[in-house]
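Vitamin B12-dependent ribonucleotide reductase
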Amino acid sequence: MTETVSGPARGGSGGKGAGRSKGKAAARGLTIERIFTTPGVHPYDEVAWERRDVFQQNWKTGETVFEQKGVEFPESWTLNASTIVATKYFRGAVGTDAREWSLRQLIDRVVKTYRDAGERDGYFATPDDAEVFEHELTWMLLHQVFSFNSPVWFNVGTAAPQQVSACFILSVDDSMDSILNWYREEGMIFKGGSGAGLNLSRIRSSKELLSSGGTASGPVSFMRGADASAGTIKSGGATRRAAKMVVLDVDHPDIEEFVQTKAREEHKIRALRDAGFDVDLGGGDIVSVQYQNANNSVRVSDEFMRAVEAGEQFGLRSRLTGEVLDTVDARSLFTSMAEAAWQCADPGLQYDDTINDWHTNPETGRITASNPCSEYMSLDNSSCNLASLNLLKFVRDDGGFDSETFAKAVEMVITAMDISIGFADFPTDAITETTRAYRQLGIGYANLGALLMASGIAYDSEGGRALSAAITSLMTGAAYKRSAELAGVVGPYDGYARNAEAHARVMRKHAAANDSLRTVHALDEDVRKAATEVWAQGNRIGERNGWRNAQASLLAPTGTIGFMMDCDTTGIEPDFSLVKFKKLVGGGSMQIVNNTVPRALEKLGYARETIEAIVEYIAEHGNVVDAPGLRQEHYSVFDCAAGQPRSIQPMGHVRMMAAVQPFLSGAISKTVNMPEAATVEDIENVYLQGWKLGLKALAVYRDNCKVGQPLSDASSKTAKAQDSKEVVVEYRPTRKRLPKSRPSLTTSFTVGGAEGYMTAGSYPDDGLGEVFLKLGKQGSTLSGIMDAFSIAVSVALQHGVPLETYVQKFTNMRFEPSGMTDDPDVRMAQSVVDYIFRRLALDHLPFEERSALGIYTVAERKQQIETGEYAPVDDNGEQQQSATAGGTETTRADDGTAPPKPVTTERPAQSDAHTSTELLEAIQGTSTDAPLCFTCGTKMRPAGSCYVCEGCGSTSGCS
């Protein structure tokens, strides 16, 4: 797309629908170049369409919550994507002729509205350019290249108000009128299904006096009323909690009370739970607990963080006079924030000086708050409409990233997003005025984790961060370049003149960050070069024209729209897990291994037979550890956000956020998940490193820290058991002792240089009954511990605990000594315990059972590589029977060779799993900390700082 301008640039837009200021000379408009479409061919004619029946069911109650038959979608769209679009975005009453039934209707409703508004407001040079714009936008949506945020699909082209924004920032002053108006405005936003954030720091503290002489209530007191309002509106008919953010400055005199607000309520929840009350999320008694409907964040300054490092005192200041009312130990206050987050995940931190150092409109006002998910940060009383691109769509056949096409796609999407501000409706007059004057946009992306894995690059690696940073720089650079071109056509934003110098300074900061970006591979070097050129061009145009938009980019959760685009990963997130839950046409479901896994293995140079074996192993175990033929140096490529025994460490997430933050106008919606064993010191370190690495905001979540987070039906089952008065018959196992004389096998071994001996005694019927381990010198602590461990295992075996249970629990346990062994069947061990139970499995478990655990002899592994199948091999190396890793017989061709198999593995999903989260739990025997979906009852999974349901597309956030 190129810019064509005749006459001087015009001013910014005025009222609704206006595209230019009065009294300015006419500009000719944009000439739109084709990217994906073919002249004379409509995008709809290039795809094959099919009719489907879609329905949704609440898996807990069995109730069908939605059904629509005969909906029309492209054959390439998955059932999950079509179901979510049909249920969430089709308008009209179900069962009536007014109901939309085809994706064509949905796309036309939105795209034609954008085209008409663009023509009316002078964005296009000719009607032909408007038609190309319509066709390109249609093609990109049809082929899942990008998606607008949900409010666009809900509202654009309907009789409802044309609200296109999901993110709002409000403001409140130190007066009762303003506080009550805050309640009203927030309530109206919640009613519409969106969320809002605001900073309460203007409200005087409970340590200050009123004009009447009394003491002020303080912001925490008023938070109680707002929280009750949000909870009431939610319980009045919404299917999810209201999404809201509450921010307080670190120098507010009530900061210590604010920090502890939700932590104290968490103690109350625990007490209520122990007393038998229903305090699960959505439970009948949780409504009596306060402050649960908001995310809380503290605005910390550089001054405060330096005081934390130095262990100095920090002053808390009056809201009226600015004088210091009290002093606190900065380090103690910082620790209390980490302790509260350890207990209940709140508060998060927002780094005020960093945020405002990248602010393009400081002459208008400071940035004081964010939206509920923390990615949109701008002026008070403003809003932002979002759109996200599917990064995997820009990977070329040769594995490279198509920078040129990506940049052009960004320009097209930014053009559409800016057009929408002209016709959009907003919830308040103040938000309308600010949004029209500053025209904040939020373009972002999804599928970053899938892109990195498919490219054979680990998420937590220098290469992963370099490629992610380069792509983000290219995206924001292209967005601002288009914004500068639009300024020459329809004028810069109204607030640009007073902020011109500051805006240009931030553009130079972005370009300088791009120049200092270190590249690792040719892949990210090519993208960075493209970004460098785009920034140079865009800043030159901007110096002449100004810019159309005060903000251009951010990284949103992309929950529901991520499913619309059939993305494996949301926003900036890594892959959640290697196995996924897939719905089937006509009902039922399948367990599949992510398509990005075989792409990554192929990129890393593995042969097809090895890829098939690794994919089969992942389907069984949910991870890659000990997958046949996979080199350990490639394990990190397949590390995910969840799962055992490997997952991305918390600082890996922080470092990725820090890599891309300098190339975003806004911030990043992401919660750093931490294991349950994480300490307060770990959280302090994450918060401190986030500040040092230049993040704008950071939140953490420690697994199982919240009682009100429903993980299963365990709590309700416990309560029922306590209420039950029936007599409970308790069955206890009896011990079956070994005879005086029994067969045994003694094995000597070395693990990482440490020598040991293992003696395994069996029952006469060949069942393992005892294990004795000799490791370390007699009388040493290690020797004593191993003796005690041996006795415990032996007694349990004699009480009937299956050996395979021990193998499942103790293999892959990691501690020193670890490394090479002298056992040809177990060449590497992550610990002595890992080796011992692998050896016991090989010696005492039948092939079918240890095959399900992924444990094979060297002869069996060799045969799999040669024949494409696993089967037990006797001592002479002869195959005993034919079986795949999954235990099913392999059909062979007439010439004796195995027929080609698809790389992706599909199998019936576990009956108690209805989402990928539940599937991962079933495979690995772990518990994932996530809420249940209010609509369909399945367990959700993280998406940014929110949660999203794979079954129906519902989110816990504002978008």
